[in-house]
Design brief:
The chain has 5 helices and 4 strands, in the order E-H-H-E-H-H-E-H-E. It is of the alpha/beta class and 97 residues long. The protein has a single domain, classed as Rossmann fold (3-Layer(aba) Sandwich). Helix 5 links the parallel strand 3 and strand 4. The longest helix has 13 residues. The chain is globular, with a radius of gyration of 14 Å. The protein starts with a strand and ends with a strand.
């Protein structure tokens, strides 16, 4: 089964590179993998289905919009979310890690 990532995760990688929190080559490595013949990840677009599912992620528990979008993507797909973020874990979203 492929590993799915929210489209907003790509934006998050750029943000983390800009803040110096991850290696500057991370975005290029990520996009090179996504452009490969058999990528390890599949990008899930931010669409009306994910936006509608966003209402299931409580804003008072998960205030960060990118985190809410990532959680909504997992909920929409019916898949567990790989995270160690305690807010997401406490929001009633199935998590791994």
């Amino acid at each position: 089964m492929p590993t799915y990532i929210s489209a907003v995760s790509l934006v998050e990688v750029v943000y983390l590179v800009e803040r110096g929190r991850i290696d500057p080559s991370a975005f290029e490595r990520f996009t090179t993998e996504l452009d490969s013949e058999n990528p390890a990840f599949r990008v899930v677009p931010l669409d009306t289905h994910v936006a509608a599912t966003l209402r299931r992620v409580p804003r008072n528990v998960v205030p960060d919009m990118p985190d809410r979008i990532i959680a909504a993507t997992a909920l929409h797909l019916g898949l567990p979310l790989v995270t160690r973020d305690r807010r997401l874990q406490s929001a009633g979203i199935q998590t791994i890690w």
